[in-house]
Structure formats: structure tokens, C-alpha cells
Design a protein that fits this description.
By secondary structure, the protein is of the alpha/beta class. It contains ten helices and twelve strands. Bound molecules: iron/sulfur cluster. Iron/sulfur cluster binds next to loops.
């Protein structure tokens, strides 16, 4: 079975349609149509009717059903989407001139990170590449014209490295010309530290990588990220260091969820600085976002600011990701198919 239409690369479309011009016409039509079409048309301008008919018959079109759209006062929109019987969430986060889409790569997750609401869902299934691309297309079709989608982060439900073949295909499609024209460095794939997948990703993709580190000792990390017992921090950092030497232009991020009394001490900041030696990564500090049933708590804002200041004083780029969309459970670690009343 060939990949479905949204997951076909420009080269694959070219070979199926018989010309690069037809392939470009289809891609332009796909990304230029808003709202996301519910069915494929009988004809696409610029594409020979017979070639289009054959392609259309070979690639089923299954756009997601939007079960719910929740908009937060800060402009963040969370989508509850159904791909058949499979439910996932995607989030569109606007900023003054562009929007970011947070994409799910799995329905649920097999990993058990304790600060993450998704783990409470268990595992549904891996998403296909076309289902990931469709999340971006849907959000892009609804983005305000003054803030078009320019960034995609694979930070929704799921561990991307556990479904890497499909994630790599989605990244390839999203960065192909002529649409949606995202740069590789505008796409960030996040991982909770699945080392074999990280190795392959760094070998095969030019996109940015975000490592969810969250701790500076293996003991604390294993408490927050149970599979941290398998792949120690030193091995993760060694791989990032190797990649920084091999691909100095790649954007690399280290995500660090700050939990009060667990990983937010000055000593943690100092250890983090040492761990990052030789790695030009930007650190994103994320005050923990609470969800029902969790016994973790976010540090007071003053502690978050002090942690950031300690990193910055040592010359490390460190940003605080204050929660966006917390009221609709769309903030980091909160995706768990909760429904809420839109603000
Ligand atoms: S943080 Fe990521 S890898 Fe960990 S349970 Fe949540 S979705 Fe899965």
C-alpha cells in the first residue's frame, strides 16, 4: 500500500503523476485549500485528469473529524481529533507574527513520565505520517492570516522516537517545496531520551531535536522518566556532543520541567551547566503544569526566575516557557483528551 496523499513526498508525487509540475500543482492545491477539504475533488487545476484519477483511487483521503476545539484567552487552540476510532490532540499556539503547531505522533504513549498527563491514557496506536501532516494542515488552514503556521513541534501525545519511521516521513513532507515551505530548523522533534531512536534521527534528519532531560542526576531522572534507567544521562549528552561537532548548524533544545523540591535547586542548575559543556543547546525551562492525580507541584515564580538567571549568568541561553493554554489543558504535559469549557 502506498502512503496516503498527505504523506507522499514531492518525488513520489512526481513519479506517480508523471511530471514535477503536476506534483507541485497537487501540493499547492493541498496546502492552499481552507478549510481542510472533506473529500478529494474530481480534478485539480494543472493536473491531467487521468493521472489525478489514478492517484486519487490509490490514496484514500481521511481528514480528521474535529471532535472539539477549545480556545484559550491567550489564543491557544486545542483540537480533539478523531482519525476513525483513534483520538489524538493537536495544539495551535499563536505568537504575534506566526503560529506553532504541536503535533501528536501516537495516540497515548507507552512511556510513563510522571509529570505527563498523556501517560494516564495508556497506548492506543502509532499515528501514520499522513495523520501527523493532516494535524498541521488543519491547524494551518485555521491560523489567522497575520500569524501563519511557521513552526511545527512534535511534542504532543506520544514519544516520536517510538514511531520514528513515520515521524521522519512527516518531517520530510513538511519541509519539501513548494508547500508548506517549512525550514528543517523550524521543525522540532522532541524525545524523552530514547537513545537508539535519537541516534537514527540525528543521522537521517536535519530537523531540530529537543531532549526532555528534566534532571541532572540519573536517580532523579529515573524518578521522573522511568526509562531513564535504561539510557543514562551521560550517554544522552555524549550523543548530543557528538552531533554538535558533526552538525553545528542543527538547533538543539534541552527541555527541563521544573518541579518544586525535586530538580529546581541551584545545585541542579550548576550540574546542568556542566552537563551541557560542548553542546550549544538552548534550555527551555517549563514550570510544571499540574493535572489531577499528580503529587508534583511547580516551583514559585521566583525560584523559576532564579534557576534561569543562574544558567544565563554562565552564558547559557535559557528561556522560561510560561504556560500557554493551561486553562484548556493544552500546556506542556497536559494532553490527555480532557474536555473543558472554552474560555
Ligand atoms: S512526556 Fe512524552 S514520552 Fe513521556 S509519557 Fe508524556 S508523551 Fe510519553
Amino acid at each position: 500500500m502506498i502512503p496516503r496523499l498527505p504523506a507522499l513526498t514531492i518525488d513520489e508525487l512526481t513519479s506517480r503523476l508523471g511530471s514535477a509540475a503536476r506534483a507541485r500543482a497537487v501540493v499547492r492545491w493541498l496546502y492552499g485549500t481552507a478549510p481542510l477539504p472533506q473529500a478529494l475533488p474530481a480534478a485539480v487545476p494543472g493536473v491531467a485528469a487521468a493521472a489525478w484519477r489514478t492517484l486519487r483511487a490509490a490514496t484514500p483521503w481521511n481528514p480528521p473529524l474535529v471532535r472539539e476545539r477549545q480556545a484559550s484567552a491567550d489564543g491557544t487552540t486545542k483540537y480533539a481529533l478523531a482519525f476513525g476510532a483513534t483520538l489524538v490532540e493537536a495544539v495551535r499556539i499563536p505568537s504575534p507574527r506566526r503560529s506553532t503547531v504541536c503535533v501528536s505522533s501516537q495516540s497515548g504513549c507507552t512511556r510513563r513520565c510522571v509529570f505527563c498527563a498523556t501517560r494516564t491514557l495508556g497506548f492506543g496506536r502509532h499515528l501514520r505520517a499522513d495523520e501527523m501532516v493532516l494535524q498541521v494542515m488543519l491547524a494551518a488552514a485555521e491560523a489567522p492570516p497575520e500569524a501563519p503556521v511557521r513552526n511545527v513541534v512534535f511534542m504532543g501525545m506520544g514519544e516520536p522516537m517510538d514511531n520514528l519511521g513515520e515521524v521522519l516521513r512527516a518531517v520530510r513532507v513538511l519541509t519539501q517545496s513548494p508547500a508548506p515551505l517549512l525550514r528543517a530548523r523550524s521543525i522540532t522533534v522532541s524525545t524523552s531520551g530514547v537513545l537508539p531512536g535519537m541516534r537514527r534521527f540525528l543521522r537521517e534528519s536535519p530537523a531540530s531535536l529537543a531532549l526532555s532531560l528534566h534532571a541532572t542526576t540519573d536517580d532523579v531522572r529515573a524518578r521522573l522518566v522511568p526509562h531513564g534507567r535504561i539510557w543514562p544521562i551521560a550517554a544522552l549528552m555524549a550523543l548530543l556532543r557528538e552531533d554538535a561537532a558533526r552538525h553545528p548548524r542543527r538547533e538543539c533544545f534541552v527541555e527541563y520541567v521544573l518541579c518544586a523540591g525535586v530538580n529546581d535547586a541551584d545545585a541542579d542548575a550548576d550540574r546542568l551547566l556542566r552537563l551541557l559543556d560542548g553542546i550549544g543547546a538552548r534550555v527551555n525551562l517549563i514550570p510544571y503544569n499540574a493535572f489531577p492525580g499528580s503529587d508534583l507541584a511547580p516551583p514559585p515564580s521566583a525560584r523559576v526566575l532564579a534557576f534561569q538567571a543562574r544558567l544565563a549568568a554562565a552564558g547559557r541561553r535559557a528561556f522560561i516557557r510560561w504556560p500557554r493554554g493551561r486553562a484548556i489543558a493544552a500546556a506542556c504535559g497536559q494532553l490527555a483528551l480532557a474536555t473543558a469549557t472554552a474560555e
